[in-house]
Design a protein that fits this description.
With 242 residues, the chain is of the alpha+beta class. It folds into two domains: 24-136, Rossmann fold (3-Layer(aba) Sandwich), CATH 3.40.50; 174-241, no CATH class. 21% of the residues lie in helices and 33% in strands. It contains five helices and 14 strands. An eight-stranded mixed β-sheet has the order 13-12-11-10-9-8-7-14, with no helix packed on it. Strands 1, 2, 3, 4, 5 and 6 form a six-stranded mixed β-sheet that branches. The radius of gyration is 20 Å and the shape is globular. 25% of the residues are buried.
Amino acid sequence: MKKALLLLILLVSVSAFSQSINDYQYVIVPAKFDFLKENDKYRLNTLTKLLLQKYGFKSYLNTEEMPEAVADRRCSVLYASLEKDNNLFVTKVKVVLKDCKEKVVYETDFGSSREKEYAVAYNQALRAAFQSFDKLNYKYTGKEEVVATTPAVPETPTPESPSPNADSNPEVFFFAQPITNGFQIVNSEPRVIMRLFNTSQKNVFIGVKGDTNGVVILKNNQWFFEYYESGKLVSELLKLKF
């Protein structure tokens, strides 16, 4: 009886994973994984993107230009990361896909390699991890509705005209990379210039830029960093890509 119950729970869990991941079509891959010090080290980020495409996802590096349906609607996509579990003789990694609230939607088994050279070992381990997708039978269902909504926010004093610090070049964007409880904003170097922390409202964040704290909100399909300076409300345009 206990074995039957355990099997039932396992089947329900697998089913829940499959149903949930099939609601998503897009996956964003970071330019740099947390456990490595360089962008696209060992070409792992590019390989992750390509292997996701192999299994039917529309995947992008977060430094690439994305469709409008994705760029402004962060909760319509999944975010990829790698986790490692290495020891002296074996390199192990697994792929984790999370939603915009940091909830794990799907994760693979660990793939492993005994190669001594890291470039080869990580490549082999990642490909082995992706073999879990063979059993997933992913197919986008189209259930995830992409709807742009702007939440109601408390009334604030009319701000001064947009800060001159706002970038006037329409081709320059900053990129939002998922972190615990929010995002870090990076420029093209890449260098972290700001951090956004989640609130209970969609499209409203607590913004921290150096010694300045404020809120980052979406208004008329544009992001603004609003804060007080010398008693006056300043509204600074932010050209963000999520």
